[in-house]
UniProtKB/TrEMBL annotation:
Keywords: Signal. Residues 1-23 form the signal peptide. It comes from Corallococcus coralloides (strain ATCC 25202 / DSM 2259 / NBRC 100086 / M2) (Myxococcus coralloides). It comes from the Bacteria. This is Lipoprotein.
Amino acid sequence: MKRGQWRRCWGLAAALLGLPAAAQLEGPPEGSSQYSCFEAARQGSSVSETIAAQLCQGARSDTPAQCFLRVQEKGFLADPQALQLCQYAQPSDDPASCFFKARTSSFLDETQLLELCRPPIAQMLKMCPYGP
């Protein structure tokens, strides 16, 4: 088997087995939104790698990290609650501002505030936790 044929054969086998392509084994691509979110969460903060990874799972930008850091800066929420509020946030969402405004202008408890302000996708995932 020639060298080029071997690579194509390996690529096909990897695809059929669900393995990442050889080029992907070297690390995340430059500009990967999940990875950039992870890095943003870890920079200059005490966010653990575990929390940062959970926060940025499925992220399309670094918005979840920015939200998390804003909430942590104010010291209002523990990590699990900040994670619940900010995970899946997109640039069009602003769960941190929603939380801050609702906290000062309502009598809702923390759980109700989190439900009110978390991104819409989080609500959908809560109803269908195992996917379609």
